[in-house]
Structures are given as C-alpha cells and as structure tokens.
C-alpha cells in the first residue's frame, strides 16, 4: 500500500486495522479522513516516518478482517443498521442508567461525571435522529439508486440532489457526535476509572469506550466507504 499518495480515509477503508494506529497518534480518520498523512502530521507536529512505519508493519500482517470496501451499497447499508444502529439501541439504555447512578452516588467526589452524563444524554438524542434519517431517508434512496443501476434505469437528478443534501446533513451530525465523544474521552482520562471506582463505575467506562469505538467505525464506514461509492455510482449513471 503506497501510503503517501492516499488519504487517511482511503488507507483505513482498505485496511481497518490501521484505524488503531491513527487513533494512537490522535489522528481523526472518521470526520477528517480527506487529509493525507503529511497534512495530518504537520498539523499535529508528528513524526511522519514513524507513523508510516507503524502503518506498514500492521498492513503486512495476515488480515482476516471483513473486506467491506468490496461490498455492494445494499450490503453496506444493511450491515451498518444491523451491526451499528442495533448496537446503539441495545447499549444506550444501560449506559444512561449506569451514568445516572454514577452521578447520584459519585458525582460529589467526581463532578466530571455530571458533564459526561450530559454529553452522552445529548448524544443519545442526536444519534437517534441521525440513525432515523439514514434508515428512513438516505438508505432507501440508496436502495433505489442500486436498483436503477442493476436494471439500467435512469435515476432522477432530483433524487441525486436529495441524497447529496442528506449526506451533507449527516456529515455535520457525524462531526458533532465525534466531538462529543472526544470530550467524554478527555473527561474520563481515556476511559480510565479512578482509584475509588466501584464495579458499576468500571463497567460504565468500559462500555463508553466500546460505544465510542463502535460509533467511530460506523462513521468511517459511511464517510470513507459508503459515500464515495455513491459518488462513483452517480458518475457511472450519468
């Protein structure tokens, strides 16, 4: 993989294992995946050669991960709903319950919990709105687009415009969601429980970390794989 000639989003799209390397260096591969390695390193004053060496090391190892970059649009959207949307809806009630309990029991000694709870609660509402927009508007339109391609039918420019506008809105929502979890990560010291943490405290922080990882992977799948595929398909149909 010739890394210098690719964007960060393209690198992660080809091999998701590289996401862990970018995260270690504090580089946003989800919402800012359009940058090159050089641009990201210059911005954060990082050692570019060391980063490239780390990336090359992991990409040379045997890869048994899913090749989502080769999937069809329909398969991708179905996977996003089943793997990521369902996860959010399953885990959110437990996290809200745990965070509320932590605020009541430990909020006096750890006031940062109040802000963490506030950020997660805000994100819960916005996340559900975004997922509904994807499931009820964007993904059905993508299904129609795929059907048009498979049957050599014309796809209305009006619908292309609707897809483009919806993607723009969703990208803004992605950025807000990622920023909220960046704040949560900072407030939790990268999800490190304090010395006096009870079992609920530790479970909640572990779940928050897993929740963020799921969210970032979902954003990556759409920003760096799904949306570029739509642009390519639009070019083919035109």
UniProtKB/TrEMBL annotation:
UniProt xrefs under InterPro entries: Hemerythrin-like, RIC_family, ScdA-like_N_sf
Gene Ontology CC terms: cytoplasm
Localization per Swiss-Prot or TrEMBL: Cytoplasm
Single annotated GO MF: metal ion binding
Keyword Iron: yes
Pfam name, any one: Hemerythrin
Domain Hemerythrin-like: 79-230
Keywords: Cytoplasm, Iron, Metal-binding
Official protein name in the record: Iron-sulfur cluster repair di-iron protein
Source organism (scientific name): Capnocytophaga canis
């Amino acid at each position: 993989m010739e890394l210098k000639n690719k964007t960060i989003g393209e690198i992660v799209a080809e091999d998701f294992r590289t996401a862990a390397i970018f995260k270690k260096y504090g580089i946003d591969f989800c919402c800012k995946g359009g940058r090159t390695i050089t641009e990201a390193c210059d911005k954060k004053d990082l050692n570019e050669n060391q980063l490239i060496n780390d990336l090359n090391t992991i990409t040379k190892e045997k890869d048994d991960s899913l090749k989502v970059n080769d999937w069809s649009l329909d398969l991708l959207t179905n996977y996003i709903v089943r793997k990521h949307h369902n996860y959010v809806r399953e885990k959110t009630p437990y996290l809200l319950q745990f965070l509320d309990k932590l605020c009541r029991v430990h909020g006096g000694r750890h006031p940062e919990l109040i802000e963490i709870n506030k950020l997660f609660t805000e994100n819960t509402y916005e996340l559900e709105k975004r997922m509904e927009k994807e499931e009820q508007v964007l993904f059905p339109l993508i299904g129609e687009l795929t059907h048009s391609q498979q049957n050599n039918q014309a796809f209305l420019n009006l619908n292309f415009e609707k897809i483009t506008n919806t993607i723009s809105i969703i990208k803004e929502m992605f950025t807000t969601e990622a920023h909220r979890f960046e704040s949560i990560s900072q407030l939790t010291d990268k999800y490190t429980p304090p010395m006096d943490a009870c079992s609920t405290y530790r479970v909640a922080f572990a779940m928050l970390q897993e929740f963020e990882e799921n969210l970032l992977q979902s954003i990556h799948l759409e920003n760096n794989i799904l949306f570029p595929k739509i642009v390519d398909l639009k070019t083919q149909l035109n």
